[in-house]
Amino acid sequence: MGEALGLKEGAMSQGPRTSLWDFAVWLYSQPGVAATSLDLQERHRVDVNLLMFAAWVGGALGARLTAADVVRAQEVSAIWQQQWVVPIRALRRQLKAAPTKSADPGFADILESMKALELQAERLEIEQLQSVAAQIMRQGSDPAGASPVTDNLLAIMRAQAVPDAAATAAAEVIRQAGGSSG
Fold first, then answer.
1. How confident is the model at residue 143 (pLDDT cuts 50, 70, 90)?
2. Distance between CA atoms of 182 and 172, rounded to whole angstroms?
3. Stated pTM of the model
4. Residue 117: how many CB atoms within 10 A of its CB?
5. C-alpha span between 1 and 127 (Å, rounded)
6. What is the mean pLDDT of the chain?
7. Alpha-carbon gap, residue 179 to 9, rounded angstroms
8. Phi, psi dihedrals of residue 11, rounded to the nearest 5°
9. pLDDT value of residue 182
10. DSSP strands (E only) in the chain
11. Structural domain boundaries enclosing 139
12. d(Cα 179, Cα 177) in Å, to the nearest integer?
């Protein structure tokens, strides 16, 4: 899938040839990324979309997030997460756990519709995060030319109060899965 997105297989640093959404879908499908991301989401309430954003800005765009960039991204994310993604996810989980689900023939369709709605809300959040990235790109990329993926991931996780050991381990899994050296 990576090559179809304008990325060499396993490489995050091929430039802005793909949307943040396509990049996120590709990176999330890489070994270890989904499990690591969902663990951070469950244990530390990290928005997985912010992780994908940080990796994309660092790896595909070659830009390093400033503290102001992190705050701006968190503000955009918080609106979508609080108003749409988290409530839809909570309802989907509630439906999934409902004891009456097996007795209702149309229940599986409702559950699938809820999954699709949650995914659509996440996609709209990512589109908003991509507009934040456009503002970052107007500032220019990292002058050193090094891939700032790890720094960006750590900045996002630290801003969300993830303990350093967990943040460092997660950043390494995501960085390695994406094939970035930085």
1. low
2. 9
3. 0.82
4. 16
5. 20
6. 84
7. 8
8. -120, 125
9. 54
10. none
11. 3-178
12. 5
